[in-house]
Amino acid sequence: MAEPLFLKSVMQEKIWGGNRLETEFGYDIPSQTTGEYWAISAHPNGVSLVANGRYEGTPLDTLYAEHRELFGNSESPVFPLLTKILDANDWLSVQVHPDDAYGLEHEGELGKTECWYIIAADEGAEIIYGHEAQSRTELAQMIEDKEWDRLLTRVPVKAGDFFFVPSGTMHAIGKGIMILETQQSSDTTYRVYDFERKDDKGNLRELHIQQSVDVMTIGEVANSHPDTIELADARLTTYVSNEFFTVYKWVIHGELAMNKQADYYLLSVLDGQGELEIDGQIYHLKKGVHFILTSDCQDWIFRGHLEMIVSHP
């Protein structure tokens, strides 16, 4: 019988983290500087466990390795996507991620193209999204001269905004922002600038200037344009669709029957509550729940009031 995979996942403490994963979502957090919840992850730095059904207790990486039929017999050697919720109680470092070719050659793992759905943002919150350098030479010089005000492109954000962040993009999430991030399953980050912050031992965090200059894209960042379908009981928005992932927002207010259009889906309930029916079985859904609809889930029904971010490779 087809069944969704609900997940129990790993919290990550960060120098810039806070407590909104607890106050907004009711998660148990390890400290008041909890920065990330790796909600759907098979990455070795934080593997989710299946929390229900016949695979209960199985790590997601093991399940992917041993039951590839649940994931459309995917040829990717690793589970390709990672879903996180981030609580930026302070600025994250200004950073960039490599593409697959550079990541595999230099770090032994995939590169990192990602995208952000802004769950919440304080008044006046900003991100860094791109830079103003016109050439790699100018980029290197501006970094060396610490001309951050001239170099970094700041963009104001509000709840409900979406940003596509391809590998090579200079970026940083600003203070007072909570996001859901869909990304390639990679943990390679090159820091360009960290606001001269020190860790709890009084040390500056490591920077990766040469790698950053090597992989940085020169030129304006092109964000994606959402495409929305309005139905009687739902609003279905496609934010981005590319070689790495397709990401949607599904808002249900009533009942919606759906059938499988992709090999499998990753789903995160950001607000509301309701239920999911598959093969006559009812599963209760509420804010903060994350699950996978595997390949054997052919069709399903959502009921209730639900706001979800959904993705697939």
From TrEMBL:
UniProt keywords, alphabetically: Isomerase, Metal-binding, Zinc
Domain Mannose-6-phosphate isomerase cupin: 237-313
Gene Ontology terms: biological process: carbohydrate metabolic process
Residue ranges occupied by any Phosphomannose isomerase type I catalytic domain in the UniProt entry: 6-117
Reaction equation(s) it catalyzes: D-mannose 6-phosphate = D-fructose 6-phosphate
Active site feature: 191
Name of one Pfam family that matches: PMI_typeI_cat
Residues that bind Zn(2+): 97, 114, 171
EC number: 5.3.1.8
Residues in the signal sequence: none
Ranges in a coiled coil: none
Alphabetized CDD domains for the sequence: cupin_PMI_type_I_N_bac
Textual note on the cofactor: Binds 1 zinc ion per subunit.
SUPFAM superfamilies: RmlC-like cupins
GO molecular function annotations of the record: mannose-6-phosphate isomerase activity; zinc ion binding
Required co-factors: Zn(2+)
Protein family membership: Belongs to the mannose-6-phosphate isomerase type 1 family.
UniProt-recorded name of the protein: Mannose-6-phosphate isomerase
